[in-house]
Amino acid sequence: MSTDTPNRAEPRQSSRLRDTLLLVGLFGLVAIGLIGAAAATGWDETKAQLAKLSLGQFGLLLALSLFNYGFRGLRWHLFARKLGLPVTLGASFRHYLGGFAMTVTPGRVGELVRMRWLRRETGWSFERTAPLVLVDRAMDLAAMGLILGVALAFSTTGIAGGVPVTILALIGAFVATRPVILERIAKLGHRATGRLPRLFARVRRAARSLKIFSAPGLMGGAVFVGLVGWAAEGYAFHLLLVWMGADIGLAKAVAIFVFATLAGGLTGAPGGVGGAEAAMIALLALEGVGLETSVPATAIIRVTTLWFAIGIGLILFPVAEKISKRQEHALENN
Q1: What residue stretch is flagged as signal peptide (predicted)?
Q2: Global pTM?
Q3: For residue 71, how far is the Cα from the chain centroid?
């Protein structure tokens, strides 16, 4: 018997409607803000900057983002196989890319839908697959923290708050991959609240499962994959600025892109929407880049990175749902 009973169909449809409205609302708010900034500087200047970008150049930006998604999707598969999950490379990419549809949920917790697909297709419980999410996020934090640190070191001018954000990213990555620390946090959380004993017990079990990923070679390779992937998107931002006549240097462009992405995430806003765009425009202004260039550049790089990923996710999400339900039904009948 399928777990997707008629009684649960209505709540799920309501949840999907809410997520869709959130997605549309966030996109609308950001679009209104960027349009307002463009209008303040004059439409002619903004249109002139946009006209500098050809379809081929726009395609290259998308290709660099795909390069990033591909590398990180491969890392997800390697982690899944290391954990012992019986999944194919195609299934891993379907789960990873399909999860991008939920990027704009608060704290990106919606991306945990990947765990639901894994449970349906393999029978593995959430606590058994949770380490996969933790280590994947940790490697992204580590890679972005290192990229930001190196970019700042090679930049002629710094970024206010750049060093603290770098340190926070590296600390977050370290804590998320240390089973002992996570177990202690779970114990302290249980003692402090005196509630949710089952939840904290699951967190402790998930933390112990992280030990399988502690091999230096595996961690080093995972960080390298993240470095290559995120550096590709940072390089895309540099190319975009050069094409628009605002060459601020590779190191500074990469630093601004990564800092804005991390800072946007730290705000807790879904997908870092709003915070990341504001940070990019403000930091470009400090480099002498006018609004007629910074606003369209920010809009384009966010479309070709964040919103491009969400678009791919929206296409693959129903496919992943359908396949996972079919395989869940097959497992139950065996």
Answers
A1: none
A2: 0.79
A3: 13
